[in-house]
Amino acid sequence: MSMLRSLRDLKGFPVISGGKKIGTFLDTYYSDEPWSVRYFVVDTGGWLEGRRILVSPHAVTELTADTVNTDLTEEAIRNAPDAEA
User: Do the beta carbons of residue 10 and residue 25 sit within 8 Å?
Assistant: First the structure.
């Protein structure tokens, strides 16, 4: 079954990778040309010095009723670019 959802509804959702919480969904960055989602902003919380990182929407494997699941490795998360303040 498919579920449509507003990206605004994802704010505050836990972001999960490998069965572990890697952060919290904060925001969405869009590309000007063409108008599309470029990155998701994820707050990594305390485990990675509280960084806010950019995550490609292609890394998202599943949206559940209350989580955003990704296929990111710990190394990919550590090497992710920082979101601009």
Answer: yes
pLDDT tens column, 11-35: 999 999 999 999 999 999 999 888 8
- Inside any domain, residue 84: no
User: Alpha helix locations (H) across the chain?
Assistant: 74-78
Question: How many whole angstroms separate alpha carbon 68 and alpha carbon 48?
Answer: 18
Parent domain of 41: 7-78
Q: Which amino acid is at 14?
A: P
CB-neighbour burial class of residue 54 (10 A; exposed 0-12, middle 13-18, buried 19+): middle
Q: Which of 9, 16, 15, 84 is nearest to 54 (CA)?
A: 84
Instruction: Cis check for the bond before 57: say yes or no (omega within 30 of 0).
Output: no
Confirm whether 2 is domain-assigned: no
